[in-house]
Amino acid sequence: VAVEHRNLVNLCLDHREGLFAPHAEDGRRLRAALSASFSFDTSWEGALLLALGHEVHLVDEDTRRDPEAFCAQVADGRLDLVNVTPSFLRELLAAGLLAPGRHHPRLLLVGGEVVDTATWRDLCAARDLGVSAYNMYGPTETTVDAVYGPCADSPDRPVIGRPGRNLRAHVLDGMLRPVPPGVPGELYLAGPQVARGYLGRPGLTAARFLPDPSGAPGERMYRTGDRVRWDARGRLEFLGRTDE
Q: Is the N or the C terminus of the chain less surrounded, counting Cβ atoms within 10 Å?
């Protein structure tokens, strides 16, 4: 996927205002755990955090494979930000990431997988410990994090949230017509985080990156292949893949 600098700039500005600044006490820089492999798109977060003046603490491969060691690094380093998949989060919770009497990250981000109901309840309950948990959604084709929201705002069921800064989400039927709230449709994402396309694959690029009917001339939207629906509060609920 060919991601441009301007795509990352929008992601950086969005996270600065929507995630990092509200959780940096008195303007203090955040201490973030960078646990993603550099072959995984969320590893871009490290460069963005550094560009914004925050600290990045690398989690080595051995620690990443050991939930107890990971939790110890978070506690001993008094790290503020942890970003992991829901499946790894379950292992971290079992190893004591949010155990009473120890340091907790103030910002907990999960993404890359569907969040099951039990894990969602744990994420919502984390607010009582002073932890803000967010569900992050977005394919590489829209520069990783395109839709997100605080878990505690929806304690009854998992949602993926709302589009980020300058981004637009369209829920469309098979004829590319918008569907009303509560009705399932396919998710299309538009805005300045939509990537250039697939390098050297013009046919696939044309099939997945379509003209955005609500955008300016030349703007495109990305067809995610994910089934979603809007809820009554303007949040997106993930329902599965269109090919399932």
A: C
Q: What is the pLDDT of residues 174-184, one digit of tens each?
A: 999 999 999 99
Q: Which helix (H) or strand (E) holds 48?
A: helix 44-51
Q: Which helix (H) or strand (E) holds 184?
A: none
Asked whether 196 and 3 are in contact (CB, 8 A), the reply is yes
Which residues of the chain are in CATH 2.30.38.10 domains? 168-241
Return the HEC string of 62-115: HHHCCHHHHHHHHHHCCCCEEEECHHHHHHHHHCCCCCCCCCCCCEEEEECCCC
CATH entry, 168-241, from 3.40.367.20, 2.30.38.10, 3.30.160.620, 2.40.50.220: 2.30.38.10
Give the burial class of 204: count Cβ atoms within 10 A of its Cβ; 0-12 exposed, 13-18 middle, 19 or more buried. Answer: exposed
Token representation of residue 48 = 């963005």
- Cα(159)–Cα(236) distance, integer angstroms: 6
pLDDT tens-place string over residues 52-64: 999 999 999 999 9
* Residue spans in the chain of domains classed CATH 3.40.50.12780: 5-158
Name the pTM for this structure: 0.94
In 3D, which of 221, 112, 137, 122 has the Cα closest to residue 172? 221
